Amino acid sequence: MIKCCFSENTLSLNISELLPTKKLLINYESSEKFLQIKCTLKSIGLIEPILVYIDSVTNEIKILDGHMRIEALKELGETKVECLVSTIYDTYTPNKKVNQVTIIQIQKMLKEAIKAGVPIELLSASLNISVDSLKGRISVLDGISPQVVEILNDKVVPKATFLALKKMVPLRQLECANLMIRFDNFSKNFSHSLLQSSPKETLIESKNTKGNHKTAQRKMIDRLEKEMAHVHVDADKLKENYGSTSLKLTIVISHIKTLLENQALFRWLHKHKPELLNELIKISEIRSLN
């Protein structure tokens, strides 16, 4: 049977009663993420409830996830917030187990929102970006082969890589996308190397194309060689360090298991450092490093 770790309904709680479980960066108020959260809250309200844990002994309400949202709500003058209550004190929140949203997925969501009738001005205000920047995000996949979009859907690919792919014909786009997946490299530099190493007939001619073709071809080969050299160097470093790192981790896990077998230490951690105890137990339960 699967145990539910959260209450079925949210609770409206006083923001002043919520206690943080971590410290935010000193300059968090000027970060892009915080400003975006603040604009979203101001434009359309809270989308995702704050995750909290209510200590049955002290009755303290601890924030497990949503520290920035809470600070943004305070600045906006809010006094109450919708919270989802966790049945266990675990700061390893669900958000950390969710894959990062990719550019392709963002673009699909933006198009769906506009299709549903959401004004583009409201979207730009919610995301704290200009209307022109939002239009650029929406059109980032224009000219990209549907097959390429499909195979890169769950990959974290930078915008510059898609701009490079747009300069290729669909078949070459697909070839390069498969190469990126093979080498697990979606970087701007690698995509530009693939672009410059592409035969002239596989590129979409631009009216502004200038310069000597042989010089450009030499540059692209040099860049591709450098990029591939970096890949091999990184792979060799991982191979060299894997054995010693695995041994060290195995020793650490064994030592943690020994410590947790000490009942006096276990009780002290359970009473004074429950969050640390949770993490140590998780580490001790690791069976394989593969």
TrEMBL record:
Residues 12-91 form the ParB-like N-terminal domain. InterPro entries: ParB/Sulfiredoxin_sf, ParB_N, Plasmid_RepB. SUPFAM superfamilies: ParB/Sulfiredoxin (SSF110849). Residues 99-279 form the RepB plasmid partition domain. The lineage of its organism: Bacteria, Pseudomonadati, Pseudomonadota, Gammaproteobacteria, Enterobacterales. It comes from the Bacteria. Pfam families: ParB_N (PF02195), RepB (PF07506). This is Plasmid partitioning protein.
